[in-house]
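[stage:ingest] chain + small molecule (1-deoxynojirimycin)
[stage:ingest] validated
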Amino acid sequence: MSADPPWWARAAVYQIYLRSFQDSDGDGVGDLDGARSRLPDLADLGIDTVWLSPVHPSPDRDFGYDVADYDDVAAVYGGTPALRRFVDVAHDLGLRVLLDGVFNHTSDQHAWFRSSRSQPDGPHGDWYHWHDGPHPPNNWASTFGGPAWTHDPTSGRLYLHSFAPEQPDLNWANPDVQQAIFDNLAHWFDFGIDGFRLDVFNNYAKHPQLADNPWRTDLLGRVARFIYPFLAQDHIHDRDRPELAHLLARMRAIADSADRPLVLVGETLDERFEYDRAATWCGPDRLHLAFHFRWLHTRWSAPDFHAAIRDQLAAFGGGLTPTWVLGNHDFPRLATRWGAGRHTDARMRLVPLLQLGLPGMAVVYQGDELGTPEARIPRKQIQDPPGKRFWPLYRGRDGCRTPMAWDAHPHGAFTTGTPWLPLHPDHPTRNVAVQRARPGSIWSTYRAMLHLRRTHPALVEGQVTLPLSPSAAVVTYLRHTSRQAVRVVANLSSKEVSWRLPRGEVATGTLLTTGFCASSARSITLGPYAGAVVEVDQP
Ligand code: NOJ
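[stage:predict] done
[stage:export] tokens:
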């Protein structure tokens, strides 16, 4: 990586799931004034960018990912004045703000869709994908289950929705649709935001004749076809279409025309974790960066972690910037995926060492810095539509969306009212106040590592080198410039290991440790799940 990377290429992003972050008015739902009051906590933690989950008015059939008006901010979050205050305070604290741009689909309550369904020959008639029926024009399946086509009683026709029926897909082939979205990007850039996370960007463009997707013939495909057809298809006609390239180029040109450096980071819809495909949509005439989910099928094992890091560095080589996303509001919590009973906290303390020392954009999902586990939400309280639909096979995404626990007050001081989702039962002991007061806590380890990431040139702009082959227990990488070298070593096993530095390398100082560590110039002894960040001299 070249010296002096742009801000987004080394950003430490914190994902605020707004409904669950901080309520300011006692209605049980997080809001922008509440989130603003917590920005100093985030600055203190050491992050430099916040990504806000969708803020626009929405009937919340998919909690904000069904947008009813792209120009406005939902009253429940405080409206546009509250976003103004939020962005201003963030900027005063030196934090950048990303909005969530949900442009593959709108809500069925959006004025565009209402107009489209009631006036097929009107100004919005062709803004969505309509079919006269009676049968769907192709075999496409919804990510949320069942077919991707639903009959609309108002118009008597079928319309396409890659997600819930309340989320009709926009017809991106229509230049008026493109212009409306491009104008909206420009509008929020003018407002002062610093970039967008683009929800399922690789879904925008569809095959011009809406051709059938091929069915997968492997075992998974054959089984899934009858239960969850979305997983049984190769999404070659409703996803990652070549037509997408010029749409991304236009979006990039809008971002690049601003008087300050902005960022577009796409979220790749990618149930098979094809991170290398995400990389193909990044570059100077397309997205700056893309999120993908390589880490979500990475088991807690040193060889698996080594491979995940190696694969991403390879896919995002050649001048592209990797992103390190370990969790978000759609997947079971990190602490539950990678936890191991009483060792869970020790493992979670290793995560910031492994994640935040790597080059590129790192993303921390709210609550993961506390090691919050997945919550089990009783059936009656389930809010997430896929959870309601597939219960008990799938309980939905509520378990990773429980409200933030700030201190030992009722409901973790998230709200004075009744929270829209219960907090994780751990919250009286697992909260920000408790962990801030303990130097060795998960939160404190994130804070220490975020601080090193900002202050050590090797971690800011250094090259990264991995060992050629993985070890059974230890994950390690070196970041180095001509002036400084920093090595991260993490023992992922439950046994003590003694690890020798590579030939010629000498440890000159310890920057951070978690768990039991004893180091000499040439070797480091690491207790179970212990890790160290050390400064080294190289030959
Ligand atoms: C990805 C979002 O992260 C998820 O929460 C949402 O349901 C889908 N996109 C549809 O917008």
